[in-house]
Design brief:
The structure is a single chain. With 143 residues, the chain is mainly beta. It has one domain (24-136): Tick-borne Encephalitis virus Glycoprotein, domain 1 (Sandwich), CATH 2.60.98. 13% of the residues lie in helices and 41% in strands. The protein has one helix and nine strands. The chain has one helix at residues 3-20, and strands at 27-28, 33-36, 40-44, 49-59, 74-82, 88-93, 100-103, 106-114, 129-136. The chain has a five-stranded mixed sheet, with no helix packed on it. A four-stranded antiparallel sheet has the order 2-9-8-7, with no helix packed on it. The radius of gyration is 21 Å and the shape is elongated. The termini are far apart. The relative contact order is 0.19.
């Protein structure tokens, strides 16, 4: 076998192996915070949920080095997949009144979005990190 054919065969083998292997996504535990970068996903152990951080839609938070009348807020686009169902688009915001959503028996919360903006710096889209948490829906007490 010539060297050229050997390297061609090796290249094809590498491509087949890399194409056939599926990317692994991290598995995180419910009732604890986890961090995702844009376009990352995580499976939440024991919940049947897969959460994906798509992107930051808007970031109007008051820069850390400025004085603002309002604190502002940021909005993140997420995808949520439940076992046996198609993915759903979801939007959460950093404002406390709009930072959570119920998904079946679970509540997904956006607890933090980093980095925090400064007035002299534009945050590149890929630098954002969303800190999320999945908790069970509170069950009413039985009498």
């Amino acid at each position: 076998m010539s060297m050229r054919r050997f390297f061609a065969a090796a290249a094809v083998s590498c491509l087949l192996v890399s194409c056939s292997s599926s990317p692994t996504r991290p598995t995180v535990e419910p009732v604890s915070e986890f961090v995702l970068a844009p376009e990352e996903t995580a499976s939440v152990s024991g919940t049947g949920l897969t959460i994906g951080f798509e992107r930051v839609v808007n970031d109007s938070r008051c820069p850390a080095d400025a004085i603002c009348i309002t604190a502002g807020e940021a909005e993140v686009a997420l995808s949520v997949r439940r076992v046996g169902r198609p993915a759903e688009a979801l939007s959460l915001r950093t404002a406390e009144s709009r930072n959570r959503a119920q998904i079946g028996d679970w509540v997904l919360s956006l607890t933090r979005l980093a980095p925090y903006p400064f007035s002299d710096h534009t945050i590149p889209a890929g630098d954002y990190r969303a800190t999320l948490r999945v908790d069970p829906v509170a069950q009413p007490a039985r009498r």
